[in-house]
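Subgroup meeting minutes
Present: P.N., E.W., G.H.
Scribe: E.W.

1. P.N. recapped why we're keeping a running log of single-chain structure predictions: easier to compare across weeks, and new members can see raw inputs and outputs side by side.
2. G.H. added today's entry (166 aa).
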Amino acid sequence: MTDPKQPPGLRCVGIGGQTPRIVAARPGWARIAVLLGCAWLLASCATSPDDLTGEITPAEYFQHAQEATAASDFRGAMAWYEAFRERYGTDPTRGEQNLLLWAEYEIAFLHHKMGDDRTAMRLLGELIDRYEAPEAATYAPAPRILALRVIEELQPGAAPDAAGAG
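Output recorded in log:
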């Protein structure tokens, strides 16, 4: 039985006809066990690229990576992008090639988010260099444009001329 006039953190107890008394409320072990069990369950339900045995679509790789990024699990996100690159990087279709460029951009940007700007700059430079290939005319321009913007943000004046993007 609780009294709405009680200060927070206190509860009124009385068992079997005893006079009720006010005692400090303590979290019960049962509640703690339930909370720990829920935390374990949520952690064990997280999927990583290594857990996958079946075929998943490119969109699912990116979805998992974006969910990991939203949860600030940048290394997990990179693992999803890397898994995508390993799966589709050997003989990509045109659509997969554009997604590979996006994955490369995202990996570089994640390095930046983790404070590793040196690696981010190197990877962004490599991404931009890929747009020099003859087949680059079919590449999606957005990863290159965003890479140039990030380079300019990290080192003003260091980005190659954005003219000719895409």
